[in-house]
Amino acid sequence: GLCFLAVFSAQEVAVRQALRPVSAVAPGSRTGRRSEPKGQRAVRGAAAAPSFESVFSSPLGKLAALVGDKEARSVWARIRRGEAPRARDDAAGYVLAPINSTQLADSENFFSVEAVGSVVERTVANDATVKLLVRLRDGQQVETVLIPPLPEREGAIRAKNARAKTTLCVSSQVGCRMACSFCATGRMGLRRNLAAAEILAQVAIAITATSSFSMPPLSNIVFMGMGEPADNAAEVRSALACLTDPKRFGFSKSKVLVSTVAPNPDAFAKLLGDARTRALE
User: Under a CB-based contact definition with an 8 Å cutoff, are residues 202 and 134 in contact?
Assistant: First the structure.
């Protein structure tokens, strides 16, 4: 069958009745899939995403039921600033709202970024690109990459479509089964899918990292890291809903892109939430 690489904006990935055209992306581009983290081996039959409770994957209504509407808004305001989701500020007299413990078994880990994933290695390239190696709760590792704006050049006129904001390249799987010839991750094989919370934790970690590395605020998200998003469509769609929710991460729908090699005819329907795929044939 025909294999091609296409990009969707989050707006296009939303549930709708008509499919929009997609644009091509060159294989092996700077935001292409990354190399295999050290020390990992493919595990057959381990593709399912883990199931656990996290602030990142919980609907806003559930969070409000746990801590109240005001605190729920404060939690997401702190996440957007790159801060811990729940943190006391004794100097300012800020006290955390009590948690409805009857609805939450593990409140400490529920609000913890580190309980989902933590950075174990940082690599900075000559062009200031920052690669973060993130260890997940089961010991598996994925890479997420911060790409800085194109530098201003004396006497040069920046094209209107030139990259001028910080971009984050996120992973959707540990490894990948597609084995694309241009992609180092494809040689790993597929370990497992990422849960939506693990995708979103990469974004929270990256927001904090932009400040640490004196980069402009994060503006663009591209699903061009490890994995094939269409093979993990349910978790990717859940992550997209959170990323583009104005009350949660609040990224513009036009600034969130999903890359796929379209592994089968149903891939577009899975990502787009639309049963009709003839428009793409």
Answer: yes
